[in-house]
């Protein structure tokens, strides 16, 4: 029996010649490790000192020559009372328990006992299936080889001939993180790829191609991938991909396909085969570099393809610094064309790396707009009270961007404030309200909703109330006033007294009614009909209309001196002291807990779950937030049109479950409250 411990699985084989197979495999492993500049971590090393290299078990580390000291300094250590300068040591000499290496672009020293020799990683071993890991897995396959920072000076003068790999004097000295550096490490050997690009005569008289040629525009289709890939199916896929790039740029006939068909082909290939994303990026960069196409818009279309690609798929950690450097060089170099779109490509790529990229393929209308150079449009966002905001959204705009933009209008700039606001998508004519993830792409949401419901609305609401209220900004005050006013008029913020309200309650409600009247910029004394609209219905019935009118008259002179903005601010300040201010309310049809009379009202806030009587709004049961272990939402079943929420309470040892049936669909739970 033979047992092989691979990186992600264990393989057991049965063979009569198991000892011979083991000996042969061991010989291969030893040969691969011989003179290798790589080690594999056998334990985690997470030091606090930033000068040391942090890594996890299984990481591949690229050993580097010892870091040169700063000017005027020497690096060394004391061995048997003698100072030994590290600069004087041979590279493969004793390391005194420490090594120096790089991983994912970081460099530093680390203890020798935490690593063991490893074979150099191979770009050919990247997984072909999309489910075998994300971009991080791609980078792990090559470890830090391409992400490593290698000291080099910017090359000046004519191109240097690419010589045999064993001749150090012929190697190119390339700028760090340039696309040429990436090509030098991972592209096929230029001497073996004569099918496209220029050919230069070397000193020996034979034809030679430089790395620059491999990264320059070609008029002929590729016969093999740019990046060295051993899998023949991937190689065929790469050539098909390049042909699609040429067709999109207008350098090859469409052959019955539309531009949208070609774009879908490219995006789907990259979605299904994550390992091909770097190849696609390299192909597009090649075709927009020194573009000499006879088609006048070829280069521009190539940049727009790169813009779209960066919005949907990220590159690997290996390619990322090189691609970003390429885009920054174009966008920041004075006099170069396409500076604006290069900057936009970089922004899309950064968004995709952060939020995962768009999911819904662009509609024909969106694609036509992008090809025409229109990368943004106005989208309506509804704030409480019917306030409208037509905000500019771009290809990669996410919900968080819109939250930040509206918050900026309200003079809120801190991340803690952003976390208290949410964009909701409203469909089915207002019947279905769902909070958007902060990572959700707005155009993806719009496309998905158009396919399902024919359209949607986007609401902006506050859902958490940890931060104190502010009263300086007019939009802030108006938005919050409009959001809390309906809940106040339903009497949800306080309980309804069994008998006559106290004098203090009457004065407070009449003052709030007077402020509402002034908030509408009305200076006259309200009518009895208007007063009825300013007071919760359950409380209005406790007094005659004329009595309420007399109470309001006592506050008329004071509120008359206020502006509408000041009246709203005072209203907010007064009701913020009410017990359930800052809660999100839900109507509960039934509850599995016998202590909760149903139907009832559930108020969710930072203190927990508060079950209120449907008639008096008195507190029936309170469950602190710390007792809630988890929540789970179930959509309506065939037997019921109401969704329900399952809440796990208690601890791991003694856990109980409460099931609530709600009146309307919601993504409920203490962590995601929704307006009632």
Automatic annotation (TrEMBL):
PROSITE patterns: FERM_3, MYTH4, SH3. Residues 376-676 form the FERM domain. Keywords: Actin-binding, Cytoplasm, Repeat, SH3 domain. One of its GO terms (cellular component) is cytoplasm. Its main location: cytoplasm. It is found in: Cytoplasm. It comes from the Eukaryota. Residues 217-371 form the MyTH4 domain. GO terms for molecular function: actin binding. The keyword Cytoplasm applies. Belongs to the TRAFAC class myosin-kinesin ATPase superfamily. Myosin family. This is Unconventional myosin-XV isoform X2.
